[in-house]
Write a structure and sequence with these properties.
448 residues, alpha+beta, BirA Bifunctional Protein, domain 2, Rossmann fold, eight-stranded mixed beta sheet, five-stranded mixed beta sheet, 16 strands, elongated, binds histidyl-adenosine monophosphate
Length: 448
């Protein structure tokens, strides 16, 4: 369908790989997610699966690697993502391929490729996974990051835009974070052309005051001047003509209805004429989700934790029959960072309750089945099977912060008993091995 051009063989020496720092082996802009942080990710994933199932969205997985032409065609030849940020290379067959910089083009391709237009419309899908953008690494900006993406394809009605915005808000609310939706309408490409001409006329005499990036944007990507974060550009933008004043009538009507639906659902939003988004395929509704902090970090512009909008030409660009679409994506690193900083941090870390210590060969052999018995009964248990000294094992139990340790020694093994040790006061008691689950459950009740 979209045949990638063959790229000439490159005879260049491979460039040196850039590391995060002299002493680090990981690439700049890439990061590990450690086990102790995983509870946040799991919480977000679990919440997403539940919420999207309840609202009738099907989960979709699309490849990490696609033909470069898919992204050029959809995101736009002159966008920052396509010109500077894609991890593009030639595969062994000589085709130009790219690591996905976002999920929407892949999902739209799958919609066309699997004839989803013939299913009852709209088709609602969500996807979670890693993305790659060769961005300038800085706080909240990575070269590998993750998104939670949701799309409604095959629906022109403004209620679909409102649903996407409402669900995004609901998701933040469930995570216990305060946000406000910044919303704009980008109209249709035809009405936007007129506006872009006006914008160029406004900025041209002020060109020398613009940052270097915006000087380039002035000719090829003029709209992006409006969301530049450089202070000098931001000052100029305050007086710039606003797109909302030049919308075609149908887009105006569409926008008003989206806002009416949002008013009914009590989603907090602000009209923001500077939301233009960095991807070419948007028309009409465009929005970004801004976190609200109790104490605003002065002179720091908060980063959007998510963004999206309507795309009514994207499916056709890919080669499908026309189909309307709207969607959004959360940046999960940024979202989780906000959850982490939030006072209402809703993530519960499951703390181990019991440590199973064993002394001697025979007791060690019993340890696996006993561990499994405790686990099956719903007790959160930990052990270190390869340690044999009691002191060492109790130290580990202490570090883990368990409420009780159960100690299976040589004597207990022969008597079919086990010791329960209260980790707070060190008091120990011998109980029947048979009754250990009931005994622990009874005692743990007082610690809930
Ligand atoms: P986007 O605004 O490019 O939209 O990305 C969505 C979110 O991903 C951003 O708001 C941000 O939180 C996060 N993000 C983007 N770049 C980075 C980065 N380099 N490091 C960390 N986080 C980042 C899209 O990608 C569209 N596909 C959204 C969409 C879906 N529109 C319609 N459907």
């Amino acid at each position: 369908m979209f045949k990638a051009k063959k790229v000439k063989d490159s005879k260049q020496e491979p460039k040196k790989i850039k590391r995060a720092s002299k002493h680090s082996a990981i690439l700049r802009g890439f990061k590990d997610i450690l086990p102790e942080h995983m509870c946040y990710w799991q919480h977000v994933y679990n919440l997403a699966h539940k919420l999207f199932f309840d609202y009738g969205y099907g989960q979709i997985e699309v490849p990490l690697l696609e033909q470069t032409s898919l992204y050029k065609r959809t995101i736009g030849e002159h966008t920052d993502i396509v010109t500077k940020e894609m991890f593009t290379f030639e595969d062994k067959g000589g085709d130009s391929v790219s690591l996905r910089p976002e999920l929407t083009p892949g999902i739209a391709r799958a919609y066309v490729e699997h004839g989803m237009l013939n299913r009852p419309q709209p088709v609602k899908m969500y996807s979670i996974g890693p993305l790659f953008r060769y961005d300038r690494p800085q706080a909240g900006r990575f070269r590998q990051f993750h998104q939670l993406d949701m799309e409604i394809i095959g629906d022109e009605n403004p209620i679909a835009d409102a649903e996407i915005i409402f669900l995004s808000y609901l998701f933040c609310k469930k995570l216990g974070i305060d946000v406000v939706m910044h919303i704009n309408s980008l109209g249709m490409p035809e009405s936007r052309e007129e506006y872009i001409k006006l914008l160029k006329e406004y900025y041209k005499p002020k060109r020398r005051l613009l940052c270097e990036d915006c000087k380039k944007r002035l000719t090829k990507n003029t709209l992006r001047l409006l969301d530049c974060k450089e202070p000098s550009c931001r000052d100029l933008t305050q007086e710039a003509p606003q797109l909302i004043d030049y919308l075609d009538d149908e887009s105006k009507q569409h926008f008003v209805r989206v806002l009416e639906y949002l008013d009914e659902s009590e989603v907090p939003y602000e009209l923001n004429p500077f939301i233009v988004r960095g991807l070419d395929y948007y028309n009409r509704t465009a929005f970004e989700i801004m976190p609200v902090f109790e104490k605003a970090e002065e002179d720091k512009i908060p980063q959007a934790i998510g963004g999206g909008g309507r795309y009514d030409q994207l499916i056709e660009l890919i080669g499908g029959r026309p189909a309307h679409g709207v969607g959004m994506a959360f940046g999960l690193e940024r979202l989780i960072d906000v959850v982490h900083k939030s006072k209402k941090d809703s993530v519960k870390r499951k703390r181990p309750q019991v440590f199973l210590a064993q002394l001697g060969e025979e007791a060690a052999k019993r340890a696996f089945p006993l561990f499994e018995r405790l686990r099956e009964s719903g007790i959160c248990v930990r052990a270190n099977f390869s340690k044999s000294g009691l002191k060492q094992q109790l130290e580990i139990a202490d570090k883990l912060g368990v409420v009780y340790s159960v100690i299976l020694g040589q004597k207990e093994f022969l008597d079919e008993t086990i010791i329960i040790r209260d980790m707070e006061n060190g008091i120990q008691e011998v109980v029947d091995l048979e009754k250990i689950v009931d005994e622990l459950k009874k005692r743990l009740k007082n610690h809930e």
